[in-house]
Amino acid sequence: MKPLLFTGPPGVGKSTAVRKVTDAPGLAGVHGLYSGEIRVDGKRQGFELELLPSGEKGVLASPDIEGEVRFGTLRADGKRRLGLSLAFLDEVACPALRAALPTAQLMVIDEIGPMQARSEVFRCLVEEIIASDVPLLATVALAEDEWIAGLRESSDCATVALTVGNRDTVAEAAAHYLKARLAQEARSV
Fold first, then answer.
1. 121: which DSSP letter?
2. What is the C-alpha separation between 176 and 163, in angstroms, rounded?
3. pLDDT at 112 over 90
4. Coil, strand or helix: which one is 176?
5. Lowest CB count within 10 Å: 19, 23, 66, 105, which one?
6. What single DSSP character describes residue 3?
7. Which H or E run contains 35?
8. Around Cβ 12, how many Cβ atoms within 10 Å?
9. What is the longest distance spanned by two Cα atoms in the chain?
């Protein structure tokens, strides 16, 4: 099965679509990584990562993180607002997903974006999952990053461009397809 990649502009509902698929009844053996916003008083204060199925969380980007690698809007001093930390991604999340790969029935990565792509450990893990027999469901940013664009355009992946109008239908179809595919594979074992 080719990896299934959801892409589209920010805010179109890529993460929502992935969660609809992973929350669908009948899917078992799901391992992966969610990316989400950290919000305080309704304002975005960074991004965090959450491991599946454990729920363990770690910070990916925050205004409190110092460092040269920064993302987000510009501050008054000319630097981007959010500092990037790859510690949780490289030291906790990627090793956990690599360890789960032999027994996982489905790998989920939300999202493959510019921040995550700064990690060589993450890029290697994504390529390892794609090369494996484990189905992958992922969201992929519309970023100019060469590696990310290569994934979106790869003939080894099935990339679906989500819109507000199609995201729910695509999520339902993907959940149905994955459940049927995983059930078929379980019967053939």
1. H
2. 19
3. yes
4. helix
5. 66
6. P
7. strand 30-40
8. 20
9. 60
> Which residue type, as a one-letter code, is found at position 147?
W
CA distance 76 to 150: 35
With a cut of 80, say whether residue 188 has pLDDT above it: no
Helix or strand or coil: residue 156? Answer: coil
What pTM does this model have? Answer: 0.91
The Cα 103–Cα 29 span in angstroms is: 8
Mean pLDDT for the chain? 92
Contact (Cβ atoms closer than 8 angstroms) between residue 92 and residue 58:
yes
- Residue identified by tokens 């690599």 is 98
pLDDT per residue over 119-177, tens digit each? 999 999 999 999 999 999 999 999 889 999 999 999 999 999 999 999 999 999 999 98
What lies within 8 Å, CB to CB, of 3 at 6+ separation is 129, 130, 135, 136, 137, 138, 156, 157, 158
User: How many helices and strands in the chain, by DSSP H and E?
Assistant: 7, 9
CA distance 27 to 25: 6
Q: What percent of the chain has pLDDT over 70?
A: 98
